[in-house]
Amino acid sequence: MNKIINKLNEKAISAKCRLTSLFHDKKGDLATNTIGAIIIAVVIVGLLIVAINAFFPNFFSGMFTSMSEKLNANW
């Protein structure tokens, strides 16, 4: 009877240790935070582009036109 109780006790302690390590596992936390920050940065940049395009409609087209003129002048 003692052997059965000891085995059950060992299995219970083992299960407790595995559950504790599972709940305290923070591997990948840095990667998740980094990906989240990149997504937020892309959204913010996109919103800035939309806002600039709304308030200055010719800003990007004028900028690209002047860049193409300068590039074509060098060829």
Helices and strands in order, then pairings?
Blueprint (H helix, E strand, L loop, with lengths): L1 H22 L5 H27 L3 H16 L1
Explain what the structure shows.
- With 75 residues, this protein is mainly alpha-helical.
- The protein has one domain.
- It is 87% helix and 0% strand.
- It has 3 helices and no strands.
- The chain has helices at residues 2-23, 29-55, 59-74.
- The model has no long low-confidence stretch (mean pLDDT 83).
Total separate domains: 1
Helix coverage percent: over 70%
Arithmetic mean of pLDDT: 83
User: Class by helix and strand content?
Assistant: mainly alpha
Outline the low-pLDDT stretches. none
Shape: rod-shaped
**What is the helix/strand order?**
HHH
Task: Give a short synopsis of this structure.
The protein is an all-alpha fold and 75 residues long. The protein has 3 helices and no strands.
Task: Give the key terms.
75 residues; mainly alpha; single chain
